[in-house]
Design a protein that fits this description.
Elements (H helix, E strand, L loop, with lengths): L3 H14 L6 H25 L12 H13 L8 H4 L1 H14 L7 H31 L2 H21 L6 H23 L5 H16 L2 H22 L8
Length: 243
């Protein structure tokens, strides 16, 4: 017997296995099946074991993986297999191509690799999530607050890093996160109590995290580029007459 989650996952993979990946249409469908498999696994484990709120289900695969990776890397003996680092980002890229280009042909070999990795990746991630939960339960209230603050700031640092070259706000957010991490180290080493400084820093970290929303950031950048193109056309329309 399997629990509901495992049964659902098995059904997804069974459905994938029934598709004829020699055909473009089934390959495009296969991408969404894999997105469901990997995304649901990350969202469920985040909620049940990793202490990440329900917003995970609203995030894309790359953002989900970014938050989970921060948790795993906080373990003393963490080890992420090389082949697992690129699974979520590469699948997100393929999924976006399928969603925005009706003629896009997902690579058959890549889909087969993602299918092969799926069950062992989930088993590995489940073990990591359970270990994180056990470690977290052993922490004192002060250690928990420090860890939550550090996780939040590292997530902000990671999410804002690749956007920092496109918008000054994200560059500032990235710098703020780094400065706050330095301050957290100072606070951690200066007292064994939950100080007012620590509480305020945790609050500031959560506020910064709310300001740096990955999906909204991408939409804002797309809109910014669209507006730039409109402005360019209005200023010099003759340059676009033959386009």
């Amino acid at each position: 017997m399997c629990d509901d989650s495992d049964c659902d996952d098995s059904m997804l993979l069974d459905t994938f296995d029934q598709l004829n990946l020699e055909e473009i249409g089934p390959r495009r469908i296969a991408v969404y099946i894999l997105e469901d498999y990997y995304g649901k696994a990350m969202a469920d484990l985040s909620r049940e074991n990793l202490g990440i709120d329900g917003r995970m289900r609203e995030m894309n695969l790359k953002s989900q993986w970014g938050k989970i990776k921060v948790r795993i890397q906080s373990l003393d003996q963490h080890s992420i297999p090389d082949e697992y680092h690129s699974i979520a980002p590469s699948l997100k890229e393929i999924r976006d191509n399928v969603a925005h280009d009706y003629d896009y042909e997902p690579p058959k070999s890549h889909l087969e690799d993602l299918r092969e990795y799926a069950p062992q990746w989930k088993a590995w991630l489940t073990d990591q999530a359970h270990e994180y939960q056990e470690v977290r339960q052993e922490l004192s209230a002060r250690q928990t607050l420090i860890q939550m603050t550090r996780n939040t700031l590292q997530e902000v640092e990671q999410e804002s890093e690749w956007l920092s070259s496109s918008a000054s706000f994200f560059e500032e957010a990235h710098d703020d996160a780094q400065e706050m991490l330095t301050e957290l180290d100072r606070i951690e080493n200066s007292s064994n109590r939950i100080t007012t400084e620590l509480v305020h820093l945790f609050s500031d970290a959560k506020e910064l995290s709310q300001e740096v929303n990955y999906d909204e950031a991408v939409e804002a950048l797309v809109e910014q580029e669209r507006q730039r193109q409109v402005d360019a056309y209005l200023e010099e329309p003759w340059l676009y007459e033959d386009m």
